[in-house]
Amino acid sequence: MPGADVCEPSETAVVNRGGGDARTVRVTMGAVTSPVRRSDDASGDVDVMRRIRAGDRTAVDELYERFRRPAFALARRILADDTLAEDVLQEVFLSVWRDPAAFDRGRGSVASWLLAVVHHKAVDAVRREESQRRRQAQAEDEMALDAPMATRDVEEDAWSRVVAAQVRTAMGVLSATQREALTLAYYGGYTQREVAALTGTALGTVKTRMLAGMRRLRQELGDPAEGGALGDAATVEEPRA
After folding, report:
1. Which domains does the chain possess?
2. Are 28 and 9 in contact (CB under 8 A)?
3. Closest CA to 195 of 156, 121, 204
4. 3-state SS assignment for residue 100
5. To which H or E segment does residue 154 belong?
6. What does the pLDDT profile of the chain (241 residues) look like in tens digits?
């Protein structure tokens, strides 16, 4: 077959101690030149293609038997992978069955055309594999870059939970009126005037309660200016009037 890499065995004589001659067969993997195809082989190839055009499924099997070795050898050289080479062969012969008119006898033999198709599809397979490897490597790099950020997010979330728990504990030491005013202002988002209206309390009284409550919270949480354990988390902003 044209383009075939054929592994032919070579024999090496081994003399045994009994004086006899024992012969062992060793397979040498070097490529040898394929025998020249006879003209009747080429005409037979054309006939097979004619039968494929006519819808003869057995003709595809025959074409495969004629060219599977040189086709596989070519695909294997390009891809360096047996499985990928077999996939390429399947794709090639399936494409021949689907579009046998792609062969133009006026432009060359069936052998040269078919092996050109194998070469083309094998190169495409190499490109797909390279593209897939690049995408996988890029995805792995992005995951590696995202990992520290995800860790920081988890740490910040955990710290927020710790702060929230300590704030709730500190709120427990306030008086009921102070706790009510601060809860409405900081968790409810109400202004001091709205807190006064909701609780039916004078605005001045609400301001006094909230100021006293914030001072007590600073004591419980630790003043950041004095190196409190909660640092910036202990900062309490003045509520809106």
Report:
1. 36-133 (1.10.1740.10), 172-234 (1.10.10.10)
2. yes
3. 204
4. helix
5. helix 110-171
6. 444 444 433 333 333 434 444 433 332 333 333 444 545 577 889 999 999 999 999 999 999 999 999 999 999 999 998 999 999 999 999 999 999 999 988 888 999 999 999 999 999 998 888 888 888 877 776 776 655 555 556 656 666 666 677 777 778 888 888 888 888 887 778 888 888 888 888 999 999 988 988 888 888 777 554 444 444 444 444 555 6
